[in-house]
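Subject: design request, 327 residues
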């Protein structure tokens, strides 16, 4: 990794407490904020069940890149290439309009108070809880970034082709443990992914011209039908056997060789991560507890860059009102 990014990662980690995140941050200034976020997300889930899985992933894609600052929500401008079309995000992240709806609803009751960065954190928690997973108290009080850099996302975010070893190395830079990695990967309990992400697994794993031998044969045949060589690679497949229910089926599928993504299945084939996959496949409560811990740690990643409370999550405020410096 480039030395600049290594320094940046360290800086994010060491300033995590600077924002003074805490539960109930909006208790006095916007007491209904968390209720409104959950209500809008619930309506979005009824309208399109897949949307909550998409919104849940925003926390991971936002927080790993320069901390949890909603930089990934910024649209490109003539002078700024944002993160939405970064390699790990383009044609993959979706449902940005759900965050827009949440922000509009919150602005109606508490204008200029609740940050987009905090909305991502609340929405990710609610996406898990609304689909059957655990509910936890989130720490809030973040500011929204004033800019975004596509190259930062390209440099940091992992690929669906990543193996467990490279993922462990990446997570360790954020003081996230092997257990955190496996638990956070369990957010793939809900949602779908594109054929684009698995074509190499099916037809040319590691340049062999053959499929990944870790794929269970019957499951591989199903993937061949879903993603034939001439498929529109934006066709999607379920990430586990219960894609609308947040449970530990994802880990049961990995044990059985039915992981959709290479970066998922490798968690079972790699020795250091296998024990946690096996644990979570047998004990859902252990998975849920580890997930909550991992999501809280991920949400604590912050930088000391200047920030604001955006009025519109897609653009910075024109005159930078409500702008502060984190100390």
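Subject: RE: design request

Done. Sequence follows.
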């Amino acid at each position: 990794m480039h030395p600049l990014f290594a320094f940046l990662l360290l800086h994010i980690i060491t300033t995590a407490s600077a924002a003074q995140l805490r539960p109930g941050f909006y208790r006095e200034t916007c007491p209904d904020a968390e209720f409104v976020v959950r209500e809008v997300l619930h309506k979005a889930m009824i309208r399109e069940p897949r949307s909550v899985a998409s919104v849940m992933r925003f926390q991971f894609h936002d927080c790993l890149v320069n901390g949890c600052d909603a930089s990934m929500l910024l649209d490109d401008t003539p002078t700024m290439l944002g993160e939405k079309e970064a390699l790990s995000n383009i044609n993959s992240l979706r449902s940005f309009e759900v965050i827009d709806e949440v922000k509009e609803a919150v602005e109606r009751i508490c204008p200029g108070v609740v940050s987009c960065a905090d909305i991502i954190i609340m929405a990710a928690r609610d996406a898990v809880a609304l689909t059957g997973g655990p509910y936890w108290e989130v720490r809030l009080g973040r500011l929204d970034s004033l800019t975004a850099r596509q190259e930062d996302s390209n440099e940091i975010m992992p690929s669906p082709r990543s193996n467990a070893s490279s993922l462990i190395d990446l997570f360790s830079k954020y003081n996230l443990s092997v257990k955190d990695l496996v638990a956070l990967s369990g957010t793939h309990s809900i949602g779908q992914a594109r054929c684009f992400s698995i074509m190499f697994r099916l037809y040319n794993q590691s340049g062999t011209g053959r499929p990944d031998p870790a794929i269970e044969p019957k499951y591989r045949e199903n993937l061949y039908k879903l993603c034939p060589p001439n498929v529109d690679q934006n066709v999607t497949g379920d990430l586990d056997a219960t894609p609308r229910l947040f449970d530990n089926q994802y880990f049961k599928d990995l044990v059985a060789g039915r992981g959709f993504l290479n970066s998922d299945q490798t968690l079972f084939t790699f020795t250091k991560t296998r024990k946690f996959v096996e644990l979570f496949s047998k004990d859902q409560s252990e998975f849920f507890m580890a997930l909550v811990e991992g999501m809280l740690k991920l949400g604590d990643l912050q930088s000391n860059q200047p920030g604001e409370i955006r009025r519109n999550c897609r653009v910075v405020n024109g005159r930078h009102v409500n702008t502060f410096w984190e100390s």
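The first helix runs from residue 3 to 14.
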